[in-house]
Amino acid sequence: MPFESVASPEKLTNWAGNIEYSTENVATVNSVANVQDFVRKDFSFKTLGTRHCFNRIADSTQQLLTTDFAAQVPIVDPAARTISVGPGVRYGTIAPMLEKSGFALHNLASLPHISVAGACTTATHGSGVNNGNLATAVAALEIVNASGDVVILSRKNNPDVFPGSVVGLGALGVITKVTLNIQPTFQVAQYVCENLPFSSLKQHFDEILSAAYSVSLFTDWQNQRINEVWLKHRIDPGKPPIKQPQDFFGATRATKNLHPIAALSAENCTEQMGVPGPWYDRLPHFKMGFTPSAGKELQSEYFVPHKNALEAILAVEKLHEQICPHLMITEIRTIAADDLWMSAAYKQDCVAIHFTWKPEWPEVSKLLPIIERELAPFKPRPHWGKLFTIPPAQLQTSYEKLPEFVALAKKFDPTGKFRNEFLNTNIFGAAS
Questions:
Q1: Which one is the CATH code of 75-185: 3.30.465.10, 3.30.70.20, 1.10.238.10, 3.10.520.10?
Q2: I want to staple 167 with a disulfide (CB 3.0 to 4.6 A). Which of 123, 288, 341, 408 is the partner?
């Protein structure tokens, strides 16, 4: 048997535990040929990665598929400056391999625990005013379409549809290989500063967000302050480390490693205090070997145009009395514009306002529409893998290439084999 579908012995959930998948039928495949055989069966299904999405974008009522290509070793091509990886491979797995080969990726998310394919297909981002999201590193994709055929798309050979396929939201098929652009390795020195006044943020917004290669602002929306500013300074070979001043626009340099959520131990966080280290051990906030973030939590995230970001942040700040009781922490960071049709940063530099919520969905579900109304004048684009309540009709106005994306998806999947309720509601319903 090339694959076997078995009922999970217990209810299958996502990483955070807030989603219980709608079927217990889970099949595992370990080769492209097996993926093709599976896809040719007469049922609809969704593919699971590391199950880090907080909504039902990867849910199915019929069948789930996991891809375990453990025997497929990632291939580094020094001449082309690329690395090719199979489905399910995590950033934390390939990063040390790249480092040993003298290479790096341009950007990483907060968590190295997520899969390359899953992160790219949902436009997961990382941070930096000049850094595109993780999907912008994709040079080529190998996808098995609804007919079971292998389709290879690259930026070089398929410039007309490639920008529509990278952030595919699982609607085009099963990703069996991702080829990423890489660059020479570099080191990063990370500093954290505490208690940045909101008044300083208002006066020096762009200076603060461009003060390092990657900058993250963490706030609980209390006391008119940014609790922590995480500054990740890139150190290129031959250049000395950057020394962070004691005072950063009114914030004070931390004297010990900190967690974004002050009450939690910094043990699982990447090294701070300006100690230089390899890119993969500084660009994420959390170490690969530890439970990421807080664990049991909910997440929402909204991308607004950089030019409107300060106004949007102040609009959210007005809601602090409603937000604070249910919030763990908010992170604010930047993402550079790209050309990927379904990316939140399509044709616009963005600032992302991210909410890590306590696991209190009844309360959070009532809060999200209130936040979304405040952000509505700025046409917010939600993170595709996180919780939002923006109506499909509003999504249609936010993603100008949505009709083209729907047409591309129908070409790859004419009968809707890869669709589910989430996609039908938010993508195909919005464009009908």
A1: 3.30.465.10
A2: 123
